[in-house]
Each structure stands twice: as structure tokens, then as C-alpha cells.
Write a structure and sequence with these properties.
The complex is a heterodimer of chains A (about 700) and B (about 400). Chain A is an alpha+beta fold and about 700 residues long. Chain A has 18 helices and 27 strands. In chain A, the strands form 6 sheets. In chain A, strands 14, 15, 18, 19, 20, 21 and 22 form a 7-stranded antiparallel β-sheet that branches. Chain A has a 6-stranded antiparallel β-sheet with strand order 2-3-25-26-1-27. Chain B starts with a helix and ends in a 10-residue tail after the last helix. Chain B has helices spanning about 1-10, 25-45, 50-70, 70-90, 95-100, 100-105, 110-135, 135-165, 180-200, 205-225, 245-280, 285-290, 290-325, 335-355, 360-385. Chain B is globular, with a radius of gyration of 22 Å. Chain B has 2 domains: about 25-70; about 85-390. Chain B is mainly alpha-helical. Chain B is built from 15 helices and no strands. Classes of the chains: A alpha+beta (about 700), B mainly alpha (about 400). The structure holds protoporphyrin IX containing FE.
Chain lengths: ~700, ~400
């Protein structure tokens, strides 16, 4: 029989016997009754694997269903019924839900029980040599062989001991009634690997649990805490939603601090609400700086902060940046984000509706809202977002050699009517160049998912909106329009007959009506009017003449506006002024689609930034890292330290003085394949020295 | 087998480790130490303490790696020479990529990646051809092509590293920051792992299977990098990624992904052979695929390796998160999927080790494991949003 050839086939079979071995060995412990059943259930591999799978699946749910969003967005997505079902299953905050924590708890218990079962065995195998092994069981091992030696037992033993030592084995030898038993092992630290890895899991889970917000959940259940769900200022939050500085051993919260401001609190998010956590120190933001790449993407941002201890008054000044937090006592302060810190906008309202009162310019802070009187009542103006720059890919990258261009600052705001409906606007604060001319650009949309539709208002000779709105108010002025229409009609017909006077009167009325249509509804309304009143075959003709008339009267109005500005209109107007007129009419023609009661102009602004900090206290962190270290060491030991054992039993040969028989066998546990090779090498060595019996 | 035997015979004879080293081994170690010293001398002022540590660690592990697996030395030296050649051709003029002959057709990052892609696909075909016609020569050719592709891939990455600095110092970064770059990394790591097992077991017949997954990665790479998305453009880094952690976290992760992919593809070969045998086919082609036990063992070994690296990578990721986002674990989708992948392979290992599972079920499991891994690696970026949302599709 040759073991060398069979090693491959035996390999898998041999390993399959391992679990039963393990079971036998672990049941050495004396356990009785229910406790025993429970322990063996908790420590069973089946439970462990099931837990792996269940935790895995639960985690998947948490990644598919976005966690910790605003509750009403879930209602919109799932409807009230499923929202309620999901909420009661805590699916919106799975990872700190009761059932998830309990699952992890089971994993913890299961691993602990497992360690309790196996650790003694592992330690035994790590430290001890198995000297009590019989020749019979050695012969059954799949790497084994028997040789005869012509030298004495002692000499044979010495030879083989030396060889095994060379091979890196530790030895233990026993001599009993002339029979020498040598037990050896190599890489037994592998067994420690089990204890390290599994112990590490326990260390990591426990410390992470300690760092989590489980204690807050418990206090919530006990009625001592209640997350605040209203949109309140920190100072208005009631005590039941507040935590004192020394009241919470671990937390992770966020704070937005505007430049020049100080805060002593952070907000802890809990499901759809928050808690206010007081800090034992204050944070003052002296300066916030942000740098951008050419593409407008943030390159780096950092904050100059001052920490002042509330008790001692001690101050620390430091600059923090992404990836460079400040560690202060048990706290870590991270640069997490940035935001507007309440920039102040100087606003001017240009009414677009008729009969609207003038509104004096005012200041408003970004994030605030205010009521504004319009002709038909009141609307609410909400300033949503201010951006200091807007970099976009340059459409003329080829010609200019610049890949990006900066469109300057923007203000995003909403105008909400009395029924609560809002439209969103984005205004470019400085005029934007388009085909060589400058325009005030304003985008509008009804919902956040739509793209903005843009209105371009040309800038006048003073780079302002004045001319545009003068033109509009003139169109709105009935008596003036009547005067201008009559004058224009008379001029264009140039007739003195009585019939002519009638025609002039008629023409002036048509002009006023067209201007009124155009003013109220742009090109669209004029077209509709034609479509309604004129039979189809005549439309084209009528349209041509209508637009000619409209052009004439609008042109005259424009000249009036220029005249009022002080332009000498008797000489030719400049090409720019001519171009302005075209742009003006185009913009006016589509203005009704803008559907806003006024045009909001930002005349100047004071930019204020806020820095977003993440402030944490995680006393378990270093323990988690310790656990991680143990885990790594454990895994390396388990995978890469091969636990190998070789036994040798040397007996005197049939009572003769000089001869001996050796039985050599071994096993390589997890590394059977390598061990088989190693054993082959040993066999060859032995073959040279001794003669092989089997 | 014979080589291994030769080594084993000496195992029980007294000798020191040193005496086993050849001249080339010494030269190898000396070369690396000198290079490291040179780099340190010239550039340490530009590196922070962690980067110096990474340099030292990389150098030591390269030496060790070269001693443990000899082909690494020739590989490393070829990569280094080619990359340095490309870098010296560039000088400070990025535009040379379009005009210099060598750069344009061979070793600018883009061309090197193209060569890599083409060679991997060719090698896949060649391996399968060799499997069907049983030609040793074709096998060797396929293997050589895989080696060269792997050289070109790493050259491509290293040159890209330099190119990013040529665009602008501010933009310069280690090229493992978006899906395009990590797909290259994935391809070369998976190929390396395969080549290691190929060299050890001297069987080429799994090559086609393993390279199939690499070829798929290449297909994705070409579509993603050079298609309408143009992801092969070098982009600047968002602030959160500007950290030395990226240099260790990402490569460690990809050793994990690569090893899991390898085990899955060996699993495919296993399943094919196993079902053919069950149906009574045992033709010459089936015979050329390694013994089931051998494949089973490779599957285990590569999952073990993957698990070790993946664990390390996840831990490094947690430490980085603790520094960048303020918490070592935030249940961000990417983190969560890392946990899922990890639990999946933990279950696999336990079933094998404690329940004695072998063969088919575990082969299936490792194939399915690849899909779980793939989701963690691309699916999360594609379908889920979170803190890791750079490198989106
Ligand atoms: C999250 C929890 C756990 C992790 C990450 C984990 C990890 C590991 C790893 C990496 C190995 C090494 C596999 C190898 O050597 O190839 C292992 C082995 C093992 N695990 Fe776990 N394990 C966990 C929980 C458990 C539990 C709950 C049990 C008990 C039911 C258990 C029992 C075992 C046993 C018996 C071995 C084999 C040890 C040996 O004979 O060398 N493990 N585990």
C-alpha cells in the first residue's frame, strides 16, 4: 500500500471526518438538560450561518431603501398604508432598529458560545503535544509509513529528532518500556488564530454597540427622551429633546456654524427627528475657505476654528480640513460640509403685473422668507440658496482654450402663492453674455424635477434693467398709449381727409388693442386672437399686417422710452440700441410664460459661508481598532500558518538490541495537500537511512 | 510537482534561509533598497509621514514578494523600465502623447491600456483554443500574452499617475479613484493571481475561464472609459479622496475582489467538469481541466486570500472613514455591501471548514459570490447613492 498515490483521493474524505471529531471533542464539557440544549443551539454552526444570511439580507434592504429620509418623502413614495407598515418595522432606520440590534446580539452570543465550546480545545492543541497516541491510530493516518532501522532505538530517535527539528517542528519525547514516542508540531499558533478572530468579533461588536445610539433608544422607550420633529431653532427645543454635555457617553452629531459665529451644541439625528446635544466646549468659526478646481468642483475646504472649554475657559485654535480632523479630549471635530451661512441679499423688486405698487428695495438673508404685496394679494418670497460661482463647461472651449466658464453668482428662490403653490427661480446676479450681448438671466420651473426655462432680459446702456421696465410701464399706461397710438397712426397713414381721420382713429384703436394683447399675453395671445377671429385662408395675410402694425407702435413706444432717457432720437440711434429693441420685443413676447408677479434683482450681496462640522465622541473606537488588529492577526494565523503534526513511535525490533522499527505518521489539518508533499520529502529521507517496511 | 518535490527534499536538512538565496535574489533586494533610498532621498520632502511609511512598506513587501514568487522580479523590473521610459519621454509635455511615436502607439497610458485590453482578449481566446486542441505551445503563448498584458496594464496605471500630474499638480493623484482606473486594477490583480496559480500548478487549462472575467472587465472598461462617457479622462479628486488612505485601501480591496473573481471562475470550470463527469463524458478536453480536488483547493485558497485582504481593506476603509467622515461605520451602502460580501465568504469558509462541505455546492456558492461581489463593486455606484458616490456610472 502506498500512501503517496492515494493522498489526493483521501484528501477530501479525510477532511469530512473533521466535524465529527470536533463534535466529539467539544462535548467533553459537562452540560445538562435545557442549558445544554440551549448552549448547543446557540453555539451551532447552523445558527451562525443563518445569522450571517439574515444579517446580510437585512443589510441589503437598508441599502435599497434609502435610510433616514424625511418621512413625508416616504409617504409620497409608498402611500400612507405601506408607509405605516414600513415605519412600524423600522425599515427607515434599519441599522438602529430593535430587531437588527437583536440580530447582531444573537451573532454576538453565538460567537461567544462558540468560543466557549472550542477555546479549550484550541488552547490544548496550541500548547500541548499529543503523546498518548497509539501505533494503530498512526497507521490509520493517510500520511504514514513504517521503516526498520538497523541502529538502536536511541540512535534512531536522535536521527529523526534532528531531522524533524530541521524541518521546523517542536518536539516532545516520551520513553516508556523502551518504546520512544515523539510528538511534534509546527505552526500550532494556527489554533490561536481561531481565538483571535472570534474574540475579535466580540470585541468589535461590543465596542461598536457601545458607540452606537442604543442607550438613547432605551431612554426614549423609558420616556426620558423624545426626538424633536418640528423645524425649531436650537434654543426653542424643549428639555425632553436635549442632552446635557455629561449626559451621553457617545454620540455623532452635526453642526453648521456660520463665519464669525459660535456654537456649543450639535444635532443628533434620530429617525425623522433630532436631539440637541450640548457640548462641554464651544466652537467658533473664524474663517472658512474653499478652493475650487477649474471645473468649479471643490478642491479643498477648511475652517479656522477656536475651541473654548466651557468649564476652564482654555482655548485651542486650529485649522481643520477634510481628512484632517481635530481631536480634542474625547471629541473629534471633522470638516464635513459647507453651506450658506446666511448671506445677505440686497433685493429690488420689479413688478411685472399691472397696477402694482412700487416696493422699496430691502435686504433679506438667504434661508429666510417674507411676504410681498402684489396686485392680487400677497405672495411669500423664500430665498433658498445662494451660490457664489457657477462653473459650466464652456461651449466655446475650442476657440477660447478655456474648458470652463464661470457664470457668476446665483440666487435660487421660491415664490409661493396664497394657496401654497410655489415656483422655483434661479437668477444669475450679474448679466450673462450671450452672442456678444449681455442679459439678466432668470430660470423658472414648477417642480424640482423639471429643467429651468430661462428668460433673457437685455441690459440697457447703463447695464441696468431700467429701460426694460420703463418700456413695460409705458405699455401699461393707457392714456399715454392712447396718445402714442394716435400719433403713430396719424404719422403712418399721413392722411388729412375726413375718411382718413376715421381710419386714423380706427388704426389707433387696433394699435392699442394689439399692444394690450401683446402686453398681456405676448406673441401667443396675438396669434390666438387672429386664429379666433379670422377665417383660415386669410390668416397669413392678417398676421403679416398685424405684426407690421405691432412693430410700428412698439417701435414708437421704444423711441419714446429712449427720448425719456435723454437719447437724441432725431439722430440715428446706435446699433446697440437697435439690437436692444429686437431683444426687448423678443423677451416681451415670451414674458407671459415666465408667470411671476415680479422680477427679482439682486443689486448687491454680502457673502457669508457656514462650515458643516461633524462632532463625535466614540469611546469605543480604540477598542474597535484593537479588535480589528486581533482579527487581522487571527486571520493570518488561521490561513497562513499551517498547523502540522508528525508523530514517531520507535520500538526495539523484536527484542533485539540493535534494530528498531519506526512508525511515522502525521497530519496537516487544513493544509493536507502541502503536508502530503512534506511527508513525501520526509519519507524519502527516511528511505535513504532506513528500509521501508510499508 | 517535480519542482515542489525538489524543494521539499531539502526541507528536513539543516540549512539557513540565507544560503537558499541566489545571486539574483540579492540583486533584486539590493535594487529595490537602492531605488527606495533614491526615492526617499529625492522626494521625502514632498511626502507626509504616512506616505513615507507606505513607501517603506511597499518596498519591503515587493522584496518579499519577489523572493516568494520569482517571476515577480522580471515583472516588476519590466514595468519599472517601461514606465520610466514613458515618463522620461513625456518630460513636462503632456501633448507628446499625440506626437511621440512610442507614447502614441505603445506606452502612453491610453495606448498601454489598449494593449492590455487587446492582449487579455487574445489570451482568453488562445487559452480556450489550447484547451480544445491541446497545444502546449498555444498555452505558453496565451500565458505570455497574459503576462505582457499585465505588464502593460500596470504601466498604463503608473504612466497615468504621472500624466495626472502633467495636467496640473493640483489634479495629480494615485490612479485608483474612479471606476475606469479600478477596473484596470481589477484586471491586472485577477490576472496576477491566476498567473501565480498557473505557475505553481503548471496547468493552463483554467486560463480561459479566469480570463473570461478579465475580458468582461475589459469590455466594460472600453465601453465605460472610451465610449460616450469618456471616463478615461483624468478627473481631479474630491476633497474626501485626497488622502494617503486611498493608496492602501483601494488596492487591498481589489486584491479581495480579484481573488473572489478567480475563485468564481475556477468554480465555473469545476462545475462544468463535474457535470460532464456525472453525465459520463470524460473526453480528452475534460481530462485537460485539472482534477476536481485541485480546483476545489484553488477555490479555497483564493477565497482565503481574498477574505484576508478584504477584511484588511474593510478595516482600512473604516479607519479612513473615521478620519474623513467622522465615524468608522456609517452604514453607507458601500460599507454595508462590504459587510454583506464579507459575511457571504465567512459563511462559505465556515461551511467548508466546520461542516466539511466540498465541491459542487461551494463551487456554486463562489460563482454566486461573484455576483454579490460585483454588486458591491459596481452595483452600489450604479444604483445606490451614498457617501461613496464618486465614480458613478
Ligand atoms: C461574525 C462572526 C464570525 C466570523 C467573522 C468568523 C470567522 C472565521 C474565520 C475567518 C475562520 C477561519 C476559516 C479558515 O481557517 O479558513 C473561522 C473558523 C471557524 N469558525 Fe468562525 N467566525 C464567526 C463566527 C463563528 C461562530 C458563531 C462559530 C460557532 C458556531 C464559529 C466557528 C468556527 C469554527 C469551529 C471554525 C474552525 C476553526 C478551526 O477548526 O480551525 N465561527 N471563523
Amino acid at each position: 500500500m502506498s500512501h503517496e498515490n492515494t493522498s489526493e483521493n483521501n484528501f477530501s474524505k479525510k477532511n469530512e471526518t473533521k466535524p465529527s471529531q470536533a463534535t466529539r471533542q467539544r462535548s467533553n464539557r459537562k452540560e445538562h438538560g435545557l442549558g445544554k440544549v440551549l448552549l448547543s443551539f446557540l453555539g451551532s454552526m447552523e445558527l451562525a450561518i443563518s445569522l450571517f444570511v439574515v444579517v446580510g439580507i437585512a443589510s441589503i434592504i437598508g441599502t435599497i431603501l434609502q435610510q433616514n429620509q424625511a418621512y413625508n418623502s416616504y409617504v409620497v413614495k409608498f402611500g400612507p398604508f405601506w408607509f405605516e407598515v414600513f415605519r412600524s418595522l423600522e425599515l427607515f432606520d434599519i441599522y438602529s432598529s430593535w430587531w437588527f440590534v437583536i440580530l447582531l446580539g444573537f451573532l454576538l452570543v453565538s460567537t461567544s458560545v462558540c468560543i466557549y465550546h472550542y477555546a479549550p480545545l484550541m488552547i490544548r492543541e496550541w500548547r500541548q503535544f499529543r503523546l498518548t497516541i497509539s501505533a494503530k491510530s498512526l497507521k490509520l493516518m493517510h500520511s504514514s509509513g513504517v521503516w526498520s532501522s538497523s541502529s538502536s532505538v536511541a540512535q534512531t530517535a536522535q536521527f529523526i529528532q534532528e531531522k524533524l527539528r530541521n524541518g521546523g517542528y517542536q518536539l516532545s519525547t516520551k520513553t516508556e518500556q523502551g518504546v520512544v514516542t515523539i510528538a511534534t508540531k509546527k505552526g500550532s499558533a494556527n489554533r490561536l488564530g481561531y481565538i483571535f478572530t472570534h474574540g475579535a468579533i466580540i470585541v468589535i461588536c461590543l465596542s461598536a454597540l457601545y458607540d452606537g445610539n442604543f442607550n438613547l433608544k432605551l431612554r426614549e422607550v423609558a420616556g426620558q427622551l423624545k426626538p424633536e420633529t418640528r423645524d425649531l431653532f436650537a434654543s426653542q427645543v424643549p428639555d425632553i429633546s436635549r442632552l446635557k454635555a455629561d449626559d451621553n457617553h457617545a454620540f455623532r452629531g452635526s453642526a453648521n456654524v456660520p463665519e464669525g459665529s459660535t456654537t456649543g451644541l450639535v444635532f443628533l439625528q434620530m429617525r425623522n427627528g433630532f436631539l440637541v446635544q450640548e457640548l462641554p466646549f464651544t466652537i467658533t468659526l473664524n474663517d472658512f475657505r474653499i478652493e475650487h478646481y477649474q471645473s468649479g468642483m471643490p478642491k479643498s475646504f477648511e475652517s479656522d476654528i477656536v475651541i473654548q472649554d466651557k468649564a476652564t475657559g482654555e482655548k485651542i485654535t486650529k485649522t481643520i480640513a477634510v481628512n484632517h480632523p481635530l481631536i480634542y479630549k474625547d471629541f473629534s471635530i471633522y470638516q464635513a460640509s459647507f453651506d450658506d451661512g446666511g448671506s445677505i441679499m440686497d433685493l429690488k423688486v420689479w413688478p411685472l403685473g399691472r397696477n402694482q405698487q412700487k416696493i422699496t428695495p430691502f435686504k433679506q438673508v438667504v434661508g429666510d422668507s417674507r411676504q410681498i404685496k402684489i396686485a392680487t394679494g400677497e405672495v411669500k418670497l423664500e430665498l433658498a440658496e445662494f451660490k457664489i460661482s457657477n462653473v459650466q463647461p464652456n461651449p466655446k472651449a475650442k476657440e477660447t482654450g478655456r474648458k470652463f466658464k464661470n457664470m457668476g453668482p446665483t440666487l435660487t428662490f421660491r415664490i409661493r402663492d396664497s394657496s401654497g403653490q410655489a415656483k422655483e427661480f434661479i437668477n444669475y446676479i450679474s448679466p450673462v453674455v450671450q452672442e456678444g450681448r449681455y442679459f439678466f438671466l432668470s430660470g423658472v420651473r414648477n417642480t424640482a424635477n423639471e429643467p429651468f426655462r430661462y428668460l433673457f432680459i437685455p441690459v440697457d446702456d447703463e447695464n441696468s434693467l431700467k429701460r426694460f421696465f420703463n418700456f413695460r410701464s409705458l405699455l401699461n399706461n393707457r392714456s399715454e398709449m392712447q396718445r402714442i397710438a394716435e400719433k403713430t397712426a396719424a404719422l403712418s397713414l399721413q392722411s388729412t381727409t375726413e375718411n382718413g381721420a376715421k381710419m386714423v382713429a380706427q388704426m389707433s384703436i387696433v394699435m392699442q388693442r394689439l399692444v394690450d394683447l401683446f402686453n398681456r399675453g405676448g406673441f401667443d395671445l396675438v396669434m390666438n386672437d387672429i386664429n379666433e377671429k379670422v377665417p383660415e385662408d386669410k390668416r397669413k395675410e392678417v398676421m403679416d399686417s398685424y405684426f407690421k402694425v405691432l412693430q410700428t407702435i412698439l417701435g414708437t413706444v421704444y423711441l419714446e422710452v429712449l427720448k425719456a432717457e435723454g437719447v437724441d432720437i432725431n439722430n440715428n440711434i446706435s446699433p446697440a440700441q437697435e439690437q436692444y429693441y429686437d431683444d426687448l420685443v423678443n423677451t416681451m413676447g415670451i414674458l407671459p410664460n415666465y408667470k411671476a408677479p415680479f422680477f427679482l434683482q439682486v443689486t448687491s450681496f454680502e457673502h457669508k459661508e457656514a462650515s458643516g462640522f461633524q462632532i463625535t465622541k466614540s469611546p469605543g473606537k480604540n477598542l474597535v481598532y484593537l479588535g480589528c488588529l486581533l482579527l487581522c492577526i487571527g486571520i493570518v494565523l488561521m490561513f497562513y500558518v499551517a498547523h502540522k503534526r508528525i508523530w514517531v513511535i520507535i520500538e526495539p525490533f523484536d527484542g533485539s538490541e540493535s534494530g528498531a522499527q519506526l512508525i511515522v505518521a502525521g497530519s496537516g489539518d487544513r493544509h493536507q495537500r502541502e503536508f502530503a508533499l512534506e511527508f513525501q520529502a520526509l519519507s524519502q529521507l527516511l528511505d535513504k537511512q532506513f528500509s521501508k517496511l510499508s | 510537482m517535480s519542482v515542489a518535490k525538489q524543494e521539499m527534499e531539502n526541507l528536513f536538512e539543516k540549512q539557513s534561509f540565507i544560503s537558499k538565496l541566489s545571486l539574483f535574489d540579492y540583486i533584486w533586494a539590493a535594487l529595490l533598497l537602492l531605488t527606495t533610498a533614491y526615492v526617499w532621498q529625492h522626494y521625502s520632502s514632498l511626502m507626509d509621514i504616512y506616505e513615507v511609511m507606505i513607501l517603506g512598506f511597499t518596498s519591503v513587501s515587493l522584496i518579499a514578494w519577489g523572493l516568494l514568487w520569482k517571476p515577480v522580479r522580471v515583472y516588476t523590473i519590466s514595468v519599472a523600465l517601461l514606465s520610466l521610459f514613458a515618463i522620461s519621454l513625456y518630460g513636462t509635455e503632456l501633448a507628446l502623447a499625440e506626437s511621440n511615436f512610442f507614447l502614441k502607439f505603445l506606452i502612453s497610458s491610453k495606448s498601454a491600456i489598449m494593449w492590455m485590453s487587446a492582449l487579455y482578449v487574445l489570451a482568453t481566446v488562445a487559452y480556450f483554443m489550447a484547451l480544445f486542441i491541446g497545444s502546449e505551445f498555444t498555452n505558453k503563448t496565451a500565458s505570455a500574452m497574459t503576462w505582457v498584458a499585465t505588464v502593460m496594464g500596470l504601466v498604463g496605471l503608473l504612466v497615468r499617475w504621472r500624466e495626472s500630474y502633467l495636467i496640473h499638480v493640483d489634479i495629480g493623484h494615485f490612479p485608483v479613484s474612479n471606476l475606469y482606473e479600478v477596473f484596470i486594477l481589477f484586471s491586472i490583480i485577477t490576472a496576477m493571481l491566476y498567473l501565480y496559480y498557473e505557475g505553481k500548478s503548471k496547468t493552463y487549462s483554467m486560463g480561459g475561464f479566469v480570463l473570461l472575467v478579465i475580458s468582461s472587465a475589459v469590455a466594460f472598461l472600453l465601453w465605460y472609459g472610451f465610449g460616450s462617457r469618456g471616463a478615461s479622462e483624468i478627473q481631479p479628486l474630491v476633497p474626501a479622496l485626497q488622502s494617503y488612505w486611498m493608496k492602501i485601501h483601494v488596492p487591498a480591496n481589489f486584491v479581495g475582489y480579484g481573488a473572489f473573481a478567480l475563485s468564481a471562475m475556477v468554480g465555473v470550470a469545476y462545475l462544468i467538469k463535474d457535470s460532464m463527469l456525472k453525465r459520463g463524458h470524460n473526453g480528452i478536453i475534460i481530462k485537460r481541466i485539472p482534477e476536481l480536488d485541485v480546483m476545489d483547493d484553488i477555490m479555497y485558497k483564493s477565497i482565503a486570500l481574498g477574505f484576508a485582504f478584504f477584511t484588511l481593506a474593510t478595516i482600512l476603509g473604516a479607519m479612513w472613514a473615521a478620519e474623513a467622515w467622522g465615524g468608522y461605520w456609517s452604514w453607507d451602502p458601500k460599507e454595508t455591501w462590504a459587510l454583506i460580501v464579507w459575511l457571504n465568504y465567512a459563511a462559505w469558509l465556515h461551511l467548508r471548514l466546520t461542516k466539511g462541505w466540498r465541491g459542487r455546492p461551494l463551487a456554486w456558492w463562489s460563482v454566486i459570490g461573484l455576483f454579490v461581489t460585483l454588486f458591491a463593486f459596481i452595483g452600489v455606484n450604479m444604483f445606490l447613492s451614498g457617501l461613496h458616490s464618486y465614480g458613478e456610472l
